[in-house]
Amino acid sequence: MVDVTALGEVLIDFTPAGRSEGGIPLFAQNPGGAPANVLAALSRLGRRTAFIGKVGNDAFGTFLRKTLSETGIDTTGLGTARKAATTLAFVHLDESGERTFDFIRNPGADTLLSKQDIPDELVMECRIFHFGSLSLTHEPAASATIQAVSAAREAGALISFDPNLRLPLWETAEHAKAMIATGCTYANIVKISEEELEFLTGTTDLIRGTKQLLDTYGTDLILVTLAEKGCFIRRGESRLTVPGFVVDTIDTTGAGDAFLGSFLYRLLERDIEVSRLSEQELIAIGRFANAAGALATTRKGAIPSMPSLTEIGVLLPDMKASEYVEKYRPQYHFSPPSNWMNDPNGMVYYEGEYHLFYQHHPQSTIWGPMHWGHAVSTDLIHWQHLPVALAPDHNGMIFSGSAVVDAHDSSGFFDGGSGLVAIFTHHDTVQASETAADAGAGTTSRTRQRQSLAYSTDKGRTWTMYAGNPVLSDESIVDFRDPKVFWHAESSRWVMVLAAGDHVRFYTSPNLREWTFASEFGKTEGSHDGVWECPDLFELPVDGHPHERKWVLLVSIGDSPDCPEGSRTQYFVGDFNGESFSSDLADDEVIWMDEGRDNYAGVTWSDVPAEDGRRLLIGWMSNWKYANFTPTTSWRSAMTVPRVLTLKRTDEGIRLYQQPVQELSALREAPLGWSALAIGPDRPQTIDWEGKAFELEAEFELAGAAEFGLKLRKSGSEETVVGYDAALEKLFIDRTASGESAFSPAFAVRHDAALKPDGGRIKLHIFVDWSSVEVFAGGGRAVMSDLIFPDDASQGVELYAVEGQVKLISMKIYPLASIYSRQAVSAGQS
Ligand code: FRU
């Protein structure tokens, strides 16, 4: 069963997009149409939605169909008209963002929807059925609409109606009034603007006008939107005015639909009849919907501008964190406010702020045209989301890369001062040149990856693309990307490490703009299970000795169908002389940075002050095997907790150790402690505490058990096991019964990491969040980071042992506070 089915128009809103060089007005192609927008709002909030309507057999129709399905809307009810074109609306915005419309609809495909086009199940099996008046202007859509609405009502759906008056589309105003009146007779909920109230009732007086509608149609709930003033709600004799929010409005398109979609979302959550909601509840729902409407005006377009639950919640500080945060949304890990995220990019510390940019598709929860999303933090834990920093331009999409502080203006971008320079990959597609090999084979295209610069003079708030982009290209190499740049003090120049398919390359530059090839590494070293990506290179002391130093080269390797582990990150320890890297490892020796499944493309922060001195890493907590399919709603993916990297000498050689940053301890709530417990096969120990976001430290003494450990996020049917196999000396995570896993056959697995006991003891430091577990074992020697998708109710913790005993020396659990209870998200997020 779907939650909400909507019937009506889906169309292109062409919104003003500046002028061409010749001064000709330009329009941007935005997907829109009020009923589709309402569904987009609901879908962004995680509700199941279905659309019924018609598009033309043209590129606009294809684009709309794709947009709806990428937004998570079921399009089985979206037909294609053979004779008519997709309806187009040209929106003209005045200075305050108010709109007038020109419609190209003569006829538009949406008006050709007929009774036969409508799938029964979408009408008969939905909790709410929503429609507007644009499908009532012409036949056959008008009769089809009325028939569907009346069938849905009879089947028990709540009917929502938005007259959405567009007078130029009607033959006469009288016809419009009559058809809207018909719509009102079916509706439980009617949403109108002040102008529509006046059109229907002849008065602008909210109390009298809504009373007249109530008396005429017996509507359960009338919602009048009042722009930034908020909304007016009438239910019977209750009349409630709910204040709105002041935000930086740039485009009001879709605001009313965001309002209504969010209102319906909260009604679905309450799951009781409208008549049984208290006035307090109605006001709370109105506030929520006002916040959503306001946020939608801070971005261009309609469907792409629908806000997520987290964004709405941030405007509503009086709501409890748990009320506005989506299922699975990590409570203390970084996640994008909405839509898709992959690699961390451009991490740099500058003037008191840690910057985190990230691979981002701002319009979809699946990978697509890459932008750099952006957030800043002063403590690595609480992040302020900022507008998208870099967007695709004529050189292509913005793939991964790094950022540095150009302290002495080596680039010449900063007028002798300092500023930030981002070095990233521009990715585009070009016609293949006619080489001997493909001559005569027809036109083919190929992708191209080149390195480019952008710079910021205002602490990363705005960015300018360097006019001389790209600054480094080699079109003979297909995968040529993810530049990580640092200042090499010994040789007084910049060094870039770049992934080049099956190896990395080093380049040097005096000024960030001109790069010289220095050397390459890796064609015969390490793992080649997948393409090499996202390298990083840095120097660290060994065992903290300032004079004994080694270089670490991180290389992420992409997913391959033959490799069940999917994408993961290997590293090399060795030396770098400013020109070339040599590894201390044997050629066929492979060491992984994290032996979990979900820590990829991690790189380290540039320019962390010397007095801090830490090498700080954050990784993308997902895996290309299934990243696009994880069961989250309005956003997709999170980062790992930030970690401190160190080098230690071990029996196997010099190895990387990872520790969670100590800043995380600020989230700790009052700890609970246990000690000296004997755990045996017949004596598992269920802990008298439950939670979904916590930190756990446990120390075990081996006492004969073949296997022991912890079952986390446990319920009758679910558990995530963090265990130790004493015979094999292996730490493991078993997420086969951790929760949702049907989205990928590669997800429900048990996997392990070598870990020797230390003095007969095993120490585990574990971070659990709403959809992840990260284990730091043996002081950070073995690390496993895994996504899990447990039910909300799976919150138990159990200690267990198999075949023999284990002794729990001590265990501490710190519940961790949500970062959303304190965070501020800028309403200007684009
Ligand atoms: C790694 C990666 C990078 C690329 C980016 C594109 O996850 O494939 O190599 O720059 O993602 O989003």
Molecular structure report:
This protein has eleven helices and 46 strands. The strands form nine sheets. Strands 5-4-1-8-9-10-11-12-13 form a nine-stranded mixed β-sheet, with helices on both faces. The chain has a six-stranded antiparallel β-sheet with strand order 35-46-37-42-43-44, with no helix packed on it. Helix 6 (194-201) packs across helix 7 (206-217) and helix 8 packs antiparallel against helix 9 (279-296). The longest helix is centred in the middle third of the chain and has 18 residues, at 279-296. The chain is globular, with a radius of gyration of 29 Å. The two termini are 33 Å apart. It binds beta-D-fructofuranose (FRU). Beta-D-fructofuranose (FRU) binds at residues 342-343, 359, 370, 399-400, 425, 481-482, 533-534, 601.
